[in-house]
User: Fold these one by one.
Assistant:
Number 1:
Amino acid sequence: MDLYLWWQKRNDLVPLVGEERYQVRLAELLSRAAPRDLAVMGLGCSRRVDRACRAPEICGQDPEPRPDGRPYHRSGPVPGACSSFIDCYSPHEIRVRFNGDDRHSAVMLLRGGPSRALLWVDGVPVLEGEWLDNGGHWLDERFFVIRIGGPDDHPEQGYTSIGQWLYDIVSLLVYEAELRIPYVLVPGPTENWRDPVVEVRDGTVRVYVDEGAQAASTPDREFPVGAPGAG
C-alpha cells in the first residue's frame, strides 16, 4: 500500500519533497516489493512493456512453485506476476528485475541517460556516479550483471552503435547479491570489451570478449566466487 500510494500520488509529492528524495523513497519501496505488488502498482511487464498489467487478478496471486522446486523466471499473466517490469511512460523510466526465486531484485531509474541512471540491488544503492547501461540481467540467481562506462583512455574507445547508451568499449559491474560484493571490471588496453559475456562455472566468474570467445573457452578475466575484489 505504501508503494501504491507513493506511486499514485507522485504528481503531488514531487513538488513537496523534491525529485531526488522522491526517487530515493521510490527505489526503497520498489526494492521491498514482490513482483505481484508491481503488477498491482501498474508497471508494464516483460509481456507488454507498453501498458500496465492487464490481469492483476491473476498476477496478484501467490506464485506457483515449479514441480522440481527450482527457481524460474516468469512471463505472465501467471500467478506471482512476471519476473521483470518496465515503465515506459512515467518521468522515472523504471526497470525492475527479480532473480528466479524472487529473493533478489535490481531496481533502475533511467531518466536522463547513462550519466544519470541509478541502480539499487536489494535496496542498496550501487555505483552512484557511474555511467550505467539501460538494462542488466541476473546470472546464476545471485549475480546481477550490467555494463557500465568503459575507460576513456582505452585505445579502441569510440562511439557505439545506434541504439546503445554507452561508448564502444564498456566495463562491467558484477554484483554478488548474497555477499553484497560489487566487482567492477575495467578492460585493459588489450581487452576490447564491446560485447562482453559473463558466466559462472565451477565456482569461478569468467568474462569473455564475446560469445565466440565463450564458445572457445578463452576468457579474458576470471576470479573465484566470493573473492574480495576483481580489478
Number 2:
Amino acid sequence: MQAQLIVCDRITHNEQVKGHQLGTVLNHQMIPVLPYALDLYILLKIFDLPQGKSIDTHFEFNNDRGERLGKTAMTVLRNYRADDQIPGVDKDFALTLVLTEPGIVHIKCFADGEEAAWYPLTIRLQEDELQKTSSTG
C-alpha cells in the first residue's frame, strides 16, 4: 500500500468527472494573528490497496518539537476503483486546526496504526514577515 497527501486551501469533489478539483496547493500559509483557526483541505490518495480490504485512517498534527496539535477521528476506507485500475481510494478531508505559534506543522496520515504519509506545512505570522521586510528595506 502507498499513500500520498496534498494539502490545499480548498478541494471540490466533481461528480461529473468523478474526481477532485484542487485549489491552491499549500507549502506555507501566512496567518494574521495567534491563536488562529486555519481551515485545511487534505487529499489522501491510497493505491495498491489489497482487494477487499478496508483500512482505518486518521491524521495527526505535530509541531517541530513533536508536540501534538490535533488528531482526527478514525475513517474507514476501502477500494472503490474499477477492475482495470490499481486498487485504491482518493478521499478528501476538510478540517480546522487551531494554531498557537508559527513554525512547521507535520501532518501525518496513519493507516491501520502505521504512519503511511506525511506533509510539512510552514506557518508564518504576518507580523513577523512585515518586520523582516521593514528591517531589510
Number 3:
Amino acid sequence: MVIQKTNDIEIKPLYDTESGTWTYLLLDKESKQSVLIDPVLEKLERDLSYIQGMGYELAATIETHMHADHITAAGELRDKTGCDSYAPESSGAICATHFLKDGDTIQIGKLQLKTIHTPGHTPCSISLVLNETYVFTGDALFVRGCGRTDFQGGSSDSLYDSITKKLFQLPEETIVFPGHDYRGFVYSTIGEEKKWNPRIANKTLEEFKSIMDNLNLPEPKKIHEAVPANRACGKVV
C-alpha cells in the first residue's frame, strides 16, 4: 500500500493485525535508503523481505515511545542489517544507537524527520514530522482518538498539552499517520482532527480529563512481556 508518493520519497504503511500497530516504511528513491518507524518483531521477515525485494537498504528504525502492546523488531533488524536504531530520550531503551529529544532532526537522503516531544501516553513519547508535510504521531494522536493515559506514567494533562499546543499548531493540511488504529483508518489531517476528534476537538482540559478517566480499557495483553523486551530493543528477557 502506497499512501503518499512524490518524485523523491514514498510512504508505505504496514499493519500488524494482532496489536493494531501501524509500522511506516519511508523510502528515499534516489539513495535507495529506507526507514522503519515502530517495527513489530513478528513482522520482521515480512518487512525486511519487502524492503530488500525493492532494492532498498534499511538505514534506521525509530521508536515513537516505549510500547506495551507489541515487541519491537529494532534490535533484530539492527543485527541483520547493521542499521541504526533511534529511541526517545528517557525511554529506558539504553541499547539504542541514538536517542531523540525535542527538536532533533534525522536526515537520510531526502527524508528529513524532526522530533517533537509529545508526552502524555508515556513520558518519553515523540512524534516525527517528515519533510514539513507529514506527522507520525505514535500513540499521542489517532484518527478520531488518542492514546490512553492510565499506565506507564501516562498523564492526561500532558497529552492535552502535547496535542493542543504542539500537534494542533502544525499546518492544518499536515497529514497525520497514527501509531495505531482499530477501526480501519489509515491517515487523517491536523485540520480534520482539530475539528472532529471526539476526545479533544474543542474540549477543555477538564472535559478531556473526564473522557480519559472513564475509558475503562483493559490492560494491554503483552504489557508484562513487551515493556522489558522493548527496553532491550526487542530482545526478549
